[in-house]
Amino acid sequence: MYFWGFLLLSFKKMGKQKIVEMLKTGKILVSDGAWGTFLYRKGLTVGACPDEWSLSHFEAVKDIAQQYVAAGSDMVESNSFGANRFKLEHFGLQDKAEAINEAAARASRQAAGDDKYVIASIGPTGKMLVMGDVTEEEFYDCFREQAVALAKGGADAVCIETMSDADEAVQAIKAAKENTLLEIIATFTFEKTLQNEYRSMMGLTPVEAAGRAIEAGADIVGANCGNGMERMIDIVREIRSAYPDVFILVHANAGLPSNVNGVDVFPETPEMMASYVPALIKAGANIIGGCCGTTPAHIKAIKQAIKSITN
User: Fold this and answer.
1) Which CB contacts under 8 angstroms, 24+ apart, belong to 113-118?
2) Quick one: pLDDT at residue 44?
3) Can you give the three-state secondary structure of 261-306, one letter per residue?
4) What is the distance between the alpha carbons of residues 83 and 121, in angstroms, rounded to a whole number?
């Protein structure tokens, strides 16, 4: 049943241009912004499972995607960042992984309509191969379950994001590529070292991370979280210098946060983030959106900045 249902959904989407085909025309696309902050504003309590809200608070989750679409996003993610069975196990929800992912994709699909893209979120599991926590096969099976359910819910692509370990990212990419027809985006998180280099937590440079993702079958690569727009310019430039033809996505934070009375406060206003857009495009970014601290107002400003350059 899953196979035939998936094929039917795929045939329905054949009329829509793929993301990579859209990018080949030279168009700069706008993604969405943060989801977690939005959920807490809507009533999610600390310690509760954010991903489960796709089942219990479906309309609230859909509203997040709708607000980003209204702000100008060409694509929206889904409330499924931690909806893998390893993370859901902490909440006793591992047996609901399929239902949660399908609902998350469906909420974003309804918000996006037929003309916008759904790039369904797949985040890291919290497990590490080097520590013996998990095997490659367990990674693969976990991500396969998530990707198939997201496809069933109506996603156009998966956004495998906030990765630091190439081995985990590769299994996620392969699981999606071999079991769905979804386009595949893979992004890593990097930090600036004392030597002014960018490295993932596992020591990968942006070029190394992008290379592993491309080799595994990713259609689009990039960086998310951990850095504001200004630092993303350097990261994009590094990837572009090594891979002149690859498509690059950036989901930047609204600057680097400060902790004020126990709360992370992100300093960059929509106007400040948007001011970096010309340099980010010049460096080689093809898709620009936000991560932690960003709002529909930030996305609207980014959209306007892109229009002022490309029109």
Assistant:
1) 113/69, 114/16, 115/16, 116/69, 116/73, 116/74, 116/75, 116/76, 117/19, 117/74, 117/75, 117/76, 117/156, 117/157, 118/75, 118/76, 118/77, 118/78, 118/154, 118/155, 118/156, 118/157
2) 96
3) CCEEECCCCHHHHHHCHHHHHHHCCCEEEECCCCCHHHHHHHHHHH
4) 9
Which residues form the domain of 8? 2-310
Q: Dump pLDDT digits (tens) for 4-20.
A: 444 444 444 446 899 99
Sheet holding 29-30, edge to edge: 29-30, 287-290, 247-253, 220-228, 183-188, 157-163, 117-122, 75-76
pLDDT above 80: residue 297: yes
pLDDT at 15: 62
Asked if 175 contacts 143 with a C-beta cutoff of 8 angstroms, the reply is: yes
User: What is the maximum span of the chain, computed from C-alpha positions, in angstroms?
Assistant: 53
CATH number reported for the structural domain that contains residue 125 in this entry: 3.20.20.330
Quick check: 271 pLDDT over 60?
yes
The continuous run of DSSP H or E covering 202 comes out as none
Its pTM stands at 0.93
**Number of domains within the chain:** 1
Q: Residue length, the chain?
A: 311
